[in-house]
Amino acid sequence: MKILVTGANGFVGKNLIAELKNKGFNDIFQFSKETESSLLEKYTKECDFVFHLAGVNRPKDEKEFMEGNFGFTSELLELLKKHDNIAPVLITSSIQAERDNAYGRSKKAGENLLFNYSKETGVKVYVYRLANLFGKWSRPNYNTVVATYCHNIARDLDIQVNNKEAELNLCYIDDLLEEFLRALEGNPTNQDDYCVVPITHNIKLGELAELIISFKESRTNLSIPNMVDELTKKLYSTYLSFLPEDKFSYNLKMNSDNRGSFTEFIRTPERGQVSINVSKPGITKGNHWHHTKNEKFLVVSGEGLIRFRKPNSEGIIEYRVSGKKLQVIDIPTGYTHSIVNVGENDLVTVMWVNECFDPEQPDTYYLEV
Fold it and tell me: pLDDT value at position 357?
């Protein structure tokens, strides 16, 4: 199948082309403002499906709205008719098409062109009035407030929140692509005369700003956003895509002494915390027990001995662990426990505990194994 994508260098175009290639579509005609205009003749003659994504969002002159969103659409459809090409055409419109402004009128005009084209030729057309799109490769101060907030917050720049209570309807780029692939197969999600992306999310502008700010703060408080919430998960992925290329890394606080080090890595309110423990040769750590707190130890480097004993018993249980064979050791409640470095090199252990450390209620009681 030969697929024509107009607006190929735009936010949606880049993501769509990447996903089409992922799905094995290799004959993709990519058309943008930078493409030699004469190629559109060839593309409209040979294509089997059209993703018409090209449009004008922020022109210097308002008349460019109609030229880009109506004029180019008209040119595209005329070329398809010229070549008797009955390839289905998908067009991206906007929820602004319902509004009486220069942009909305131009989008509405483009929709009408497509509907009339379908009536005249019998060709299948798919018109999508899209909400506020967000995701990787979007442009700050252009595509969406999400992109602007992510870009600025990641760089310690100010953001503008004009109305905290303003409701936004957001659509994630991956959800859009899934719907577009359904349309490509002839199974779009219909709603009256239009096609829709079935998954969108509502959030207030103030909440959006606070959430993205919390993503930046997570590097210092070590928290992980609530990935159970779909919108949070998608926004966090988007935020990470806006990190400056020299700021992918960040430092952790290492609590070091002559025994080694202990470093918190991740904290979550509902899934506990993950830490990295380094013990030097011959060093023993632990020798304590818990009522409710429980842990998992995973030695990833070195040789160790994990020992257990019930407080009212003299019997000792031992597990020898090694980075050469990754093995998780559960640390049950009610057992005092320790971990000893019995090797010649540092012992590195990934430690998970079911609750974040609370100095007011540590639930940790010293007792030698």
Answer: 87
Helix (H) or strand (E) holding 199: none
Task: Give residue-wise pLDDT tens across range 59-72.
Answer: 454 555 545 555 78
* Predicted pLDDT of residue 102: 57
Q: What angle, 0 to 180 degrees and rounded to 10, lies between the N-to-C axes of helices 72-82 and 102-121?
A: 10
| Residue 126 annotated to the active site | no
Pairing of β 201-204 and β 194-195: unpaired
Q: Contact 273/353 with Cβ under 8 angstroms?
A: yes
Q: Mapping DSSP to helix (H, G, I), strand (E, B) and coil, where does residue 221 land?
A: helix
Element (H, E) at 57: none
> Which strands form 132-134's sheet, in the order they lie side by side?
132-134, 167-172, 201-204
Q: Would you place residue 150 in the very low, low, confident or very high pLDDT band (cuts 50, 70, 90)?
A: very high
Digit-coded pLDDT (tens) for 274-301: 999 999 999 999 999 999 999 999 999 9
The one-character DSSP state at 26 is -
pLDDT, position 146:
97
The pTM score is 0.90
Q: Give φ, ψ of 214 to 5 degrees.
A: -65, -30
- The average pLDDT across 142-166 equals 94
- For residue 130, CA distances in Å to 117, 167, 256 come to 21, 16, 53
Q: How many CB atoms lie under 10 A from the CB of residue 153?
A: 20
104 φ/ψ angles, rounded to the nearest 5 degrees: -60, -45
Q: How far apart are CA 192 and CA 195, in angstroms?
A: 8
Chain position carrying tokens 């960040």: 250
Domains (range + CATH), the chain: 3-211 (3.40.50.720), 254-366 (2.60.120.10)
Measure the CA–CA gap between 299 and 345, rounded to whole angstroms: 13
- The CA distance from 288 to 308, in Å, is 10
What is the torsional sign of CA 190, 193, 196, 198?
Answer: negative
- Residue 75, both tokens: 């040119």
Catalytic residue among 103, 126, 172, 239: 103
**Residues 217, 221: Cα–Cα separation, whole Å:** 6
Rounded to 5 degrees, φ, ψ at 268 are -135, 140
pLDDT at 269: 81
